[in-house]
Amino acid sequence: MNDSRIVRAVVAVAIGYSIVLAVWIGWVVDKTPPGTLPYQLAALVAGFGAALGLAMMIAGRPTREQKELIEHGVEGWATVDAIRRIDDDTAELDLEFTVPGSSSYFGKIVYGIPRADTTHFEPGTVIAVRVDPAHRERVLLLPRHDVDE
Predict the structure, then answer these.
(1) Nearest to 82 by CA among 118, 114, 112
(2) What's the CA angle centered on 105, arms 103 and 106, to 5 degrees?
């Protein structure tokens, strides 16, 4: 999850909604037929919810760099050597990367891992990865999330 993209999406929708609300209060509400105020408010709230949902969907999509790695990166795997919590939602992982066609190498990644998901990244866990063949420090982790948990 890309928290900064989600925050930007929520802020953009809130600013856009504030502008729509200001226009509605300053100009539209006086020109509408009497008795329609509850319907207008319902439409404004529904529009805000729809815009927020759409913005969250767009913010949750992979970035351009992630898409490039998914399409053009070399498949490999990483074995977790150690995990250190930075805060409740972030951890630093020591990983041993294995990519077919090259020797194994070690690296560290700071990755968004909620505290409840720490068990998926315990030492010895193998995680699928995509590695940029030209710049092997560019890595995309593809952790498996079990559905039946």
Answers:
(1) 118
(2) 170
Residues 14-27, mean pLDDT to the nearest whole number: 96
d(C-alpha 13, C-alpha 56), whole Å: 10
Q: Tell me which DSSP letter residue 48 carries.
A: H
pLDDT, tens digit, for every residue of 97-130? 999 988 999 999 999 888 888 888 999 999 999 9
Q: What is the pLDDT of residue 62?
A: 87
DSSP 106: E
Quick one: average pLDDT of 90-98? Answer: 94
DSSP 33: P
What is the distance between the alpha carbons of residues 31 and 12, in angstroms, rounded to a whole number? 28
Contact 76, 130 (CB under 8 A): yes
Query: Whole-angstrom Cα distance, residue 65 to residue 89?
Result: 22
The answer to whether 141 and 127 are in contact (CB under 8 A) is: yes
Residue pair 85/145 in contact (Cβ under 8 Å)? The answer is: no
**Where are the alpha helices (H) located in the chain, listed in sequence order?**
3-23, 37-59, 64-72
For the residues 4-33, what does the mean pLDDT come to?
Answer: 94
